Amino acid sequence: MTDHPSSIVVPGQMPDVSERKQARRENWRLIRRRPAFLIGMAILLVWVVCALFPLTIAPHHPLDFRTGLNQSPSWDHPFGTDQTGRDVFSRVIAGARDILRIAPAAAVLGVLFGVILGMLMGYIRGWFDIIASRIVESFLALPVVLVGLLAVTTMGNSAWVVIGVVAALFTPIVARTVRAAVLAERELDYVTSAKLRGESTMFIMFREILPNVMGPIVVELTVRLGYAVFTVATLSFLGAGPPPPSPDWGSQVSDNYSSIVSGFWWRTFFPAGAIASLVISVNMIADSVQSVMEAS
């Protein structure tokens, strides 16, 4: 018994909507079955809950100055206290809010702008692609953290400035990936058919091509989120993060790392461990998504 002709996908043709939905559901099922994805999501969920309800979860207010300076970890203070008597455990919980407010927003904006630029570069080609490619290459040659530090120092260290700077730094990276994916699609039969039907350029790019390059875009989003967490934390460590007395993780590490030689290791270890756990969890999610998308 042969398949109905309408169910056959000819190479170079765009799969119909139902087939794309079925492929997405199958990919999502495979991703959810990966242990790395489940572990990464569990760790990420813990920090998301901490970011949403810091004052409810934290046993003490993160800005309260309490008695007992530089106390080592104990039952009353699981992560110890800092040089002013503030509870480190409470400050680590509250510090999740800043980084999980800034990093995802920066990653999403960077991917959004990168997708738009990459779609235009890959489909329009010509002089626009040549000029945009040279600009993208020049940005890719610059060290991300150094450029981010200079930009934030110049324009201020408000949350919106940090989000905009990190998004701008990620845009050319995403654009290059999307451009390569669009170049592989623009000469296929379904694009040619759309042109013959008289469809507009915007329609072809965002209604015909975009659904077929969503795989690389989803991978870029998950990867950029991990880099955004690391970049925001690094900027905070270098003094370009939220101003004191914010319990931002990078600021805590910056304020206390010199005290390790004095034996007060917990003031640096736990904020640094929080950054590491968040970055690792996001990378575990990104690796799971990427492996499934590349295999599909």
Overview in brief:
The chain is built from twelve helices and no strands. With 296 residues, the protein is an all-alpha fold.
Polypeptide structure, described:
It is a single chain. This protein has a domain of 206 residues: MetI-like (MetI-like fold, Orthogonal Bundle), CATH 1.10.3720. It is built from twelve helices and no strands. It is mainly alpha-helical. Helix 11 crosses helix 12.
Keywords for this entry:
mainly alpha, 296 residues, elongated, MetI-like fold, single chain
Cα-to-Cα separation, first versus last residue: 27 Å
Q: What CATH architecture of one domain would you give?
A: Orthogonal Bundle
Mean pLDDT: 85
The unreliable regions are 1-14
| Helical content band | over 70%
Number of helices: 12
Major sheet: none
Percentage of β-strand residues: under 5%
Outline the fold blueprint.
Blueprint: H1 17-32, H2 35-52, H3 54-57, H4 88-124, H5 126-140, H6 144-155, H7 159-185, H8 189-196, H9 201-209, H10 214-237, H11 249-256, H12 266-295
Helix pairs in contact: 2-4, 2-12, 4-5, 4-7, 4-10, 4-12, 5-7, 6-7, 7-10, 8-9, 10-11, 10-12, 11-12
